[in-house]
Design brief:
homodimer; 403 residues; Carbamate kinase; VC0802-like; globular; eight-stranded mixed beta sheet; six-stranded antiparallel beta sheet
Chain lengths: 403, 403
């Protein structure tokens, strides 16, 4: 089999862990597999580099930040290649530019435009293990970085470019669960999950795999396995719906713990003014999540939306500044809320799912403040104090603890 | 003026020092000069990276060591570029490959083959300050490092490639002295010195500038100034003899403190066998310095040579292994010796210089064990206990404390 294995910062966080990763890779090579490795920077190295940059400069230059941060993966790739050679496995490190990872000419959060598979392909065909720096690429002769989720995306995109069979993402969790095991005692690890479900879960706060990496996998049809480098357990396969045996109505439950609701009450009916507010919020990097609009009287509109609790003050200030333009009557806000979501590809053809979720929430007296739905997701905003019992109730209601 | 400024690891050893270097560069830019900067890795970063490599691997792979070590200068160049931008100076970091530094395809101690000046030239012509990583280059798509004295050599070679007016080497000493000021109280800083004298001094243990960098400067006629980044004092100009006003007979006194003498006594007269020993020593990285051969009787030859004290055991073992082939009668060795040397371009036309040195040594009862001369140098091996007084006596005898 031809595999791309990706190890995150925790997995290569020390010399000892790098040796453990090398042993894991060596085992696969000795079993006859062709292996390409993608690694992140060692644990805290990125924080250290950011600290240095702040100590020399009060401003921020994205080109130089990228040049600086890219050294993190160069260190871990060289060290892992050395550790592999020490075990008798031929290996060589590849920076982003050496591995042919071309990105758009943007610093800090560049998207991969194309990967020239030739350098890595040639090396792996020669019997060696290429150790490729994740998170980085090159554009117009300058080093670029991919931003959050970058190393996972490198691994998935490289799997596609190399036409490899599988992309294994090694992380500190051992797979995708039906719910966060720290919150729901009966949470169960999934054997497989579709790209679409994984994308919803990733966007709903499940930290297993960054949405960018899932999107890239979906676009290229790359089979991804998420598993841990700290044990020899099976992980979760992320694949397309078509290749899964029967779709579950609900695959998992996700949540965001600290959510706030903002309401603009009694606005005259005009779409343009509303767009103004959300543009101003986006410009200030306030992440607006659920948006609900309802017409209460014929002439006025109420809009409520959720933001992260940490953004409440900023959001209220922005809304205050737009008071005259938007002409709302009241500005309300409420904190201490949580968002609970169910995700499942089988939901599309099962109309009673939302109703079943409301019933499960009602059973634990969790009042639903807001509802938002997509084809394979239902999200409800409830009081934070009900979150734990709501998760248990919903998990139980959809029998997620059972195979 | 168009200047290349090189700052060593001590000069960029902390965030605070990087800011100080940035301020120094900014002053020159604001005075209207065009400046290109070359930097080494931050103080202890190389040791830390070597430590990590030893923790992951018991063997040593030169390609990966180069990939690993090259990150050191990438960090310092990015940080210095940020610090310059913070002072309002347009700046960008350049790795070795980005700066067009092509080397021979050798890892660990590659020589620069050519520098394509275009990328750096374009940036400096656009009004920016390129901050170039010293010590590194590229060969066949792989990162290479230049080995000891590498960053100085990068700076000098880049000055030549760019046809810049001057190469300023900032280091922790403020220039070239007539003798080590820690040993000779009356030592005086030289205003200028010729490439040839500097080369002899560098090879004789004066640590101001690596011989490779001096050789490169001599070959391309690059004017080099050695000065300190910790004060605003004038440094020493290294230039060609022709441009100096009147050659001094003796320019400076150098020494190596710990030297050992090995003697092979009573060998049959055959050049080939002798070559064998020195080849074996070279293969084992033993650095043989002074070699003296004398014919005592008609049929046999005595050869004595010096090595560093730390290499004595290894040297004796190699000689023992060759005993049969070389057929010497006795193998002698002596430690506790030092080498003292005088260097001066004016020596060529002054035949009494060696005699004056012997007299100065005799005046402090320092017996001369070995003598070695070149056109602009006389070296004597003496007992270590006489070194301090011998340095004073020779320095005084040639009136080096006077302008």
């Amino acid at each position: 089999m031809f595999i791309v294995q990706k190890f995150g910062g925790t997995s290569v966080g020390s010399a000892q862990r790098i040796r453990a990763v090398a042993a894991r890779v060596a085992k696969r090579v000795q079993a006859g597999d062709q292996v390409v490795v993608v690694v992140s920077a060692m644990g805290h190295s990125t924080d250290e580099l950011v600290g240095l940059s702040q100590a020399v400069s009060s401003t921020r230059n994205n080109r130089e930040m990228d040049a600086l941060l890219a050294t993190g993966e160069q260190v871990s790739t060289a060290l892992l290649a050395m550790a592999l050679q020490d075990l008798g496995v031929e290996a060589a490190s590849f920076t982003g530019w050496q591995a042919g990872v071309r990105t758009e000419p943007v610093h800090g959060a560049a998207r991969i435009e194309a990967i020239d598979p030739q350098p890595v392909r040639t090396y792996v065909d020669g019997g060696g293990v290429p150790v490729v720096a994740g998170f980085q690429g090159i554009a117009a002769g300058a080093v670029t970085t991919l931003g959050r989720g970058g190393s996972d995306t490198t691994a998935v995109a490289l799997t596609a470019a190399l036409k490899a069979d599988l992309c294994e993402i090694y992380t500190d969790v051992d797979g995708v669960y039906t719910a966060d095991p720290r919150m729901v005692a009966t949470a169960r690890k999934l054997t497989d999950i579709s790209y679409e479900e994984m994308l919803e879960l990733a966007n709903l706060g499940t930290q297993v795999l960054h949405p960018r990496a899932v999107e890239t996998a979906k676009r290229h049809g790359v089979n991804v396995v998420v598993r841990t480098s700290f044990a020899d357990t099976e992980g979760t396969v992320i694949t397309d719906m078509a290749s899964m045996e029967g779709l579950r109505v609900v695959t998992g439950v996700a949540f965001e713990k600290e959510v706030a609701r903002i309401a603009l009450v009694g606005m005259p009916r005009s779409e343009r003014q509303l767009a103004d507010v959300f543009t101003a919020l986006a410009d200030s990097q306030v992440n607006v999540d659920v948006i609900v609009q309802s017409v209460v009287k014929s002439e006025t509109v109420d809009v409520s939306f959720t933001v992260q609790e940490a953004d409440v003050e900023r959001t209220l200030a922005i809304c205050e500044r737009s008071r005259e333009r938007i002409a709302y009557k009241e500005l309300l806000h409420e904190t201490g809320l949580s968002k609970i979501s169910i995700v499942g590809a089988g939901m599309i053809s099962n109309p009673g799912v939302a109703a079943q979720m409301f019933a499960a929430l009602e059973a634990v007296s969790a009042q639903v403040w807001m509802v938002s739905t997509s084809e394979i997701k239902v999200s409800c905003v409830i009081d934070q104090r009900h979150l734990k019992s709501a998760l248990d109730s919903v998990h139980e209601s959809f029998a997620l603890h059972q195979e």
